[in-house]
Structures are given as structure tokens and as C-alpha cells.
Amino acid sequence: MAVSAARECRSAATMEAYGTSLLILNDDCLDNIFQYLALEQLIPLFGKVHSVIDAAIDRQLHRFRHFEFSMRFPPQYDANQLLALGRHLQSININVGYSVRSDSVLALLHPLCAGAAEAARLRALKIQHANIASDYLKVISLVAPFLLELDLSRCDVAEPSQLTLLLRSATKLRTLSLSNRDAAGLEQSLLGRMQLLKVNWLVGTELFDVASVNQRYPFLSIVVYQSNHVDVYGPPVARNIGYFH
Hints:
Leucine-rich repeat, LRR (right-handed beta-alpha superhelix), two-stranded parallel ribbon, 18% strand, elongated, disordered N terminus
């Protein structure tokens, strides 16, 4: 423990010395330095040195518009750092894992979405392999009005009625990806204004009447995925459409 404490003291002293030396530089010099740093080099400094450094870091965050991570190796950023990053994001993609507690995920997702809600820049959100209950939906609702694309196709939605309420607020949504069980209950008003519905047909479950939906909404493209098989209903879909392929 003594060795660990000594290392932490040296690390803190190094950061303080580094920050102090940077403070003598003007904004242009800081920008010229920070433009070469990756996200994982910039964000840990945010909120730890000086407000001048925070401002310089914030000017670089526009370079990082797409944030993807797995909860097997979650980012080690604090809430204020995630909030700052969220203000610049256009897409978020999180691979959770069904055994991961929701509070661990939401500790990261909530500040990201809160920051994204402030800036209204987020356009796409994808969450994989998670049990989506009211706690998740409450956080997603922060950014729902700005989303063009939402992908929950590899999740279990525990409360379909709350998902319906969330989707009503997603007035800009154009692409939606859900499992066949969740897609079966979509409201007509939503289907009528979307461009693309992606359906993950779960093995051993019954698929809703896609042909009937296609006849009712001929301008809606519906893509059904089952294992390696893909069926397309309605207008043809361009390859690599949207944020998540």
C-alpha cells in the first residue's frame, strides 16, 4: 500500500507540474498541442487541472462524435467528463451484457445522455444485450426527441408500454431496430413516419405479419434478420444506411 500511495503522489505531482507548465501557453498553443491527443489522453485531464485546460480540451471534443464501448472494459471517466463528452456526440453504441447490473451502465449512460440533451446533437443510440426496464427508458428519453436512429434489437424490453411512450416523443426518428416481439406492438403513427424498421427475429418465436404491415405502409422499408437470413419488404434499402450497420 505504501508503494501504491507513493505512485499516486508522484502521478498527482506530475499532473500538477504538467498542468502548471501548460498554463503559461495561450489558447492557440494549447490547441496546437491538444489536436494531436486522442480522447483517452484528453478526457482524464478534464476537471483535474485548471479551467483554462478544460476549455482547451472542450475545443477538441468535436473531433470525437461517435462513442462506442463494451461494459467488459468500460471507460474510466467521471460524470463531469462524460457530460462534457456527451455534448459533442452524434452516436453512442454500448455493448452491455445481460449479467451486468443496470446501475453500472446507467452511471455512464446518464451523464452522456444528459450532456447530449443539452447540446441536442445526438442522432443515434444503440444498446446491445441489456434488459431494458424503466430505468433505461428514463435515461433514453432524455435524448429521444433528437434521435434519427434507435437500436434496441438485441435487448429485452421489459415494459413495452413505456417503450411506446418513449417512441411517441422520438418525433425525428427515421430508423428503428427492435426484436420481433417488441416491433409487433408499434403504433401506426410511428410506422407512418419512419423510413426503415429493422426486425431481429428471435429463434423459437413467432414473427408478426410483416406482409400486412408492408401493405399498409408501402413507403416503409422493413428488414427482417434471422440468423444469416435477411428478408426485405417494401422499398429497397441502400447499403450502409444509417449509423449502425
